[in-house]
């Protein structure tokens, strides 16, 4: 099914602003994103943004690989509906393979039934949010400085939502980034032993309600396509898949 490319371009643009890489360079319409302190694939990948930009594929991939090598990283290409088909064919012929797929989902906030009041007010305490996220995602504490840099670099309005309980501390978090009339849901996590108890619904409702009160008319998110429980929750809120993207690298079995 053909994609609405203007919509894809807009969602890609707000996605870049919601999770900014430390270094962004361009080779034609290929965006080269690198972040030395954080291994996130979204922050360390090449993203082609024009289906017609397919000149000198081998040379440009070689140049990008050298740039990634200078950061101590292997080259990753992110495939969206904006990628040139010729690049996909070239990568396949050269032994590249996709290794992760994610869905981009959206919902119309103007038609969404949400609570009349905010159960959770957004925090502006980046350090507290990072500490909670690291615990819930079971990430290394060494990532804290990089996360602080990323979150501090987000230019649109942000709301950090944290659910804490006595003794146990943080049990759920969500980051909402409002970019004009679109709000992105990022870093959404619920403690493993607290899932299916309504916490995810509560904190997601609060984030979306805050976004709508702040002027957002639509919301978007990105989720790994194999994360069935999360996708089921998002569908309950009315989120629907708009397109998917895949990460590619060389020498990886599909």
TrEMBL record:
Keyword Transferase found: yes
Domain N-acetyltransferase: from-to ranges: 104-254
Matches recorded under Pfam families: Rv0428c_C
Protein origin, superkingdom: Bacteria
Keywords: Acyltransferase, Transferase
Keyword DNA damage found: no
GO molecular function list: acyltransferase activity, transferring groups other than amino-acyl groups
CDD domains linked to this entry: NAT_SF (cd04301)
SUPFAM superfamilies listed in its UniProt record: Acyl-CoA N-acyltransferases (Nat)
Name of the protein: GNAT family N-acetyltransferase
Organism: Neorhizobium lilium
């Amino acid at each position: 099914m053909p994609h609405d490319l203007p919509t894809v371009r807009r969602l890609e643009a707000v996605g870049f602003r919601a999770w900014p890489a430390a270094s962004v360079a361009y080779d034609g319409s290929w965006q080269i994103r690198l972040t030395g302190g954080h291994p996130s694939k979204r922050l360390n990948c090449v993203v082609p943004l024009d289906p017609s930009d397919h000149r000198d594929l081998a040379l440009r991939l070689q140049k990008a690989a050298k740039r990634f090598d200078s950061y101590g990283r292997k080259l990753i290409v992110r495939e969206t509906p904006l990628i040139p088909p010729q690049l996909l064919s070239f990568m396949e012929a050269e032994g590249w393979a996709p290794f992760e797929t994610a869905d981009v989902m959206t919902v119309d906030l103007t038609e969404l039934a949400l609570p009349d009041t905010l159960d959770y007010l957004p925090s502006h305490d980046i350090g507290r949010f990072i500490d909670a996220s690291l615990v819930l995602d079971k990430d290394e504490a060494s990532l804290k400085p990089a996360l602080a840099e990323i979150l501090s670099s987000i230019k649109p309005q942000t709301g950090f939502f944290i659910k804490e309980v006595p003794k146990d501390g943080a049990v759920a978090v969500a980051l909402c980034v409002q970019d004009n009339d679109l709000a992105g849901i990022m870093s959404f996590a619920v403690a493993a032993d607290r899932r299916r108890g309504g916490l995810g619904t509560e904190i997601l409702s609060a984030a979306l309600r805050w976004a709508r009160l702040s002027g957002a008319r639509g919301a978007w998110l990105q989720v790994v396509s194999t994360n069935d429980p999360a996708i089921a929750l998002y569908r309950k809120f009315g989120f629907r898949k708009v397109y998917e993207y895949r990460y590619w690298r060389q020498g990886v079995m599909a």
